[in-house]
Amino acid sequence: MHRVLVIDDEPQIVRALVINLRARKYAVDAGHDGATALRLAAERRPDVIILDLGLPDMDGVEVIRGIRGWTRVPILVLSARQTSDEKVEALDAGADDYVTKPFGMDELLARLRAAVRRTEPATSGGAEPGIVEAEAFTVDLAAKKVNRAGRDIRLTPTEWHLLEVLVRNTGRLVSQRQLLQEVWGPSYGTETNYLRVYMAQLRRKLENDPSHPRHFITEPGMGYRFET
């Protein structure tokens, strides 16, 4: 049973989410402010967090940063903020997905399932490379670890999933649509700003010169390619 933490200052939304999630056999904890979010995230160790940004005691982006200081748990933002800059700010802080209010319950649950899948080990019937050595870093696909200059690099679940898809297709162009659907789920295909944000984060963490990437190559208008 997967555990979900729901944080929203609107009681009716919390109530609807708790009812729907429990009906689908999720264990659910809930709260209405940022302090509760930080406390329950540490105490209950959820598998996924659904987080509103407009909280009464602190901005949800600050909650994301606080949680990201110690865990890679997927964070699904649920917010009425709809501008591109606000979405990018939340994603850049460490959120894994963004759903705007008003929302459809079926879509939210689909995105939640996708977030859960991203935390589970990948399975494949064919032979897969175990360790991929790039010029600047090493990727251990089995252990889900990245090592650079002798130290492990912490990636969020979404950063890892994006890296994994690219590494498993080393040298091949992976289209924007394929990346979005593999990492975020089948309902995605046009949210290219997500890719820009996360590719920038991977470059900052793994490239020697992020402004002139050696490993994460952009094919303008088409997709991305990983080179060792």
From TrEMBL:
<keyword id="KW-0238">DNA-binding</keyword>
<dbReference type="InterPro" id="IPR001789">
    <property type="entry name" value="Sig_transdc_resp-reg_receiver"/>
</dbReference>
<dbReference type="Pfam" id="PF00072">
    <property type="entry name" value="Response_reg"/>
</dbReference>
<dbReference type="InterPro" id="IPR036388">
    <property type="entry name" value="WH-like_DNA-bd_sf"/>
</dbReference>
<dbReference type="InterPro" id="IPR011006">
    <property type="entry name" value="CheY-like_superfamily"/>
</dbReference>
<feature type="DNA-binding region" description="OmpR/PhoB-type">
    <location>
        <begin position="129"/>
        <end position="228"/>
    </location>
</feature>
<protein>
    <submittedName>
        <fullName>Response regulator</fullName>
    </submittedName>
</protein>
<dbReference type="InterPro" id="IPR001867">
    <property type="entry name" value="OmpR/PhoB-type_DNA-bd"/>
</dbReference>
<feature type="domain" description="Response regulatory">
    <location>
        <begin position="3"/>
        <end position="116"/>
    </location>
</feature>
<dbReference type="Pfam" id="PF00486">
    <property type="entry name" value="Trans_reg_C"/>
</dbReference>
<dbReference type="InterPro" id="IPR039420">
    <property type="entry name" value="WalR-like"/>
</dbReference>
<feature type="domain" description="OmpR/PhoB-type">
    <location>
        <begin position="129"/>
        <end position="228"/>
    </location>
</feature>
<keyword id="KW-0597">Phosphoprotein</keyword>
<feature type="modified residue" description="4-aspartylphosphate">
    <location>
        <position position="52"/>
    </location>
</feature>
